[in-house]
Recover the amino acids of this structure.
DNA sequence: CATGAATGAGTCTTCATTCAT
DNA sequence: AATGAATGAAGACTCATTCAT
């Protein structure tokens, strides 16, 4: 389905507000005011508040896919390099689509819109399968060890990134980084996070014992 | 503050519903009906829905503290053992207080009750400091390496456990464990999770590189 | 189900307004204002506007039953007398429960509330059966002729009464009865109507031809 | 006023929907969608929803006139035959213009559009006068009895036909006519109804007593 | 102490109509 | 002539809270 510019504008506003206040905590009036449109336009364009949420997923779900199909076929890159690229990509993606990730989480936890749950589920399964293939490939090539729990590994990736991003401020405070600009700090934390997880993954993937 | 039996009964019901449907998604009427009490009693006992939420935190926040004061002083246990005990304890705690953890997360993400945020913040800072001390101790004893990012490490712990618990069903499905009973599966996933994180932590703490 | 005084007050107000403006043409706000109660009380007491309509039927449907069980068994009254009593009763009933009859008709025509349609249907079938029995009795006794179409006969009763009551004013105007008081005119029209239908029924029931 | 083909198409669609769901129960959007035209065209062509309703009456009211002017003058037909023809005609007309009759009734009962009420009123008065003339003619010729209540007689005609048509299904069920096709049943019920009313009228008109 | 009843603000949605093109 | 977009009013309903008893 295609969305007009006006629809995309509403979707972006709604995404921001849903992320900040939750689905129930955001009224269609809030969205309309923030987007500078008449409140009735939301029903007009999307049918209902629920379907507006689904439209957000329709628009965004593609852009949060782990893009690894191409990696899979590329033999000039080692499996470990592939995994590392994937980590970088995920950190960057969460950083850039933070609003959408927040929404995904609260939808799974409490709102449970069926269409949204379905899309999220498909995404997770697909990602696990693709990563599973990279790992199998590494195992075949003898560079990864035999027993690897793909799901736990991905949970560490997703969980660590999310926990770090959501609690950015604690990290800043605990490490006395208030002097950095927001942008500098953001760059720093993404780099630290990326290195941290890559190190963990190298251990998981290659360290026998 | 002390709570009567009736109040505790309301708190438990509210905790369950808030965890399942979110704060905004749960009406005081829902809570009253589920708890089998009169609707007006909630305002009567707690003053308001918001204060009921705060009461939940008042009751539960203590029980999710990492209990490591005693560990810190105990010299018969190695620092790595302490960390491992901490991992086991956290996995167990999240598993047993799942409802409360869910509420903590959604409150941080979207509801942002100031009193709740404050309590959560204190908890996090305190935990980071305590773990930081164990690590410093290990470093002094020369068994942990020098540069360790305590916050990232804790984020990996908390993020991985949470991500795994919240997505239990994916793990079950992906690993074809549908034949296990709920209880068997629960025991299994906690063990796997614990081993997984301990391995990561051993790597973080001891592997120079 | 029992209704409190307040509920009955709301029901009566709603009945009047529904009869006058139709279900869709009456807002719950209208009802609340007319009944002098808070608008939210309607949901509080009945659940919804639709269920309020159903409550009207629950309360009224009994009082519009043709009360002929007792007539059936009474052998001191001739079948024709029974039919005549029934006509009188129906004329009186429609005159007194005019609001409710109006609602019944519009519900059947356009609103089609399933619960309401069901109740109305039961009422019609039951009435047809009871009248059918009186007629069979009369036939057995040899005072009524053999072939009588019970449904058409009842349609003439119900249709004529309804058409006359609904168009009272035409009758008044056409027969130049503006000088009568409302009450006098009402008494007159009921008598005329009753005699008119009884005459028709005597013809239907006894006139071979 | 003349209506274009497009306007007539809208009028027909609106008539069907108004008959089925009532005026308030039918949105202009419903009509536009069902008629396959743009929503704004309704206001564009008719000015408003209310005026669309009035247009329906403008188009249809003529076709439900009892066409008896010619009968009045025709001396080759007896007054009773004239009345009988009138009954047949009315039964047929209601059967064919059922939608419009439904609208007339609900407009009188609840919507009460002044223009519509006026048109309906004119129709009724005119019909009563025309029938009154036939009867007077019959009385002059000595074939009808002296005292005849024209309005009640017409109410019996209109009421019985309407009641029977609206409750066709009860008639079918009560008389076990489910085996007939819709068309067969329709023919049957019209014939039965016609005979029934003619018999009543013969009684009213000729039976002294 | 406990409760059924009541309230007013707020929810999402639908509506007939209008306007710019 | 014809239309997609827009609008403001009104719709039914839910909510947390309060009050009289």
């Amino acid at each position: 389905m295609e969305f007009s510019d006006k629809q995309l504008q509403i979707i972006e506003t709604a995404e921001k507000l849903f992320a900040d206040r939750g689905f129930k905590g955001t009224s269609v009036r809030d969205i309309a005011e923030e987007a500078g449109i008449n409140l009735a336009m939301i029903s007009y364009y999307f049918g209902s508040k629920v379907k507006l949420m689904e439209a957000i997923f329709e628009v965004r779900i593609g852009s949060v896919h782990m893009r690894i199909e191409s990696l899979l076929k590329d033999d000039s890159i080692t499996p470990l390099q592939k995994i590392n690229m994937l980590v970088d990509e995920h950190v960057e993606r969460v950083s850039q689509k933070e609003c959408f990730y927040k929404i995904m989480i609260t939808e799974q936890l409490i709102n449970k819109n069926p269409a949204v749950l379905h899309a999220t589920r498909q995404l997770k399964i697909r990602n696990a399968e693709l990563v599973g293939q990279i790992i199998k490939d590494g195992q075949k090539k003898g560079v990864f060890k035999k027993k690897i729990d793909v799901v736990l590994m991905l949970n560490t990736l997703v969980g660590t990134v999310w926990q770090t991003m959501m609690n950015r401020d604690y990290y800043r405070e605990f490490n006395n980084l208030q002097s950095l600009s927001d942008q500098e700090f953001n760059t720093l934390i993404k780099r630290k996070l990326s290195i941290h997880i890559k190190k963990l993954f190298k251990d998981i993937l290659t360290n026998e014992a």
Summary: Chain D has two domains: 5-60, 65-206.
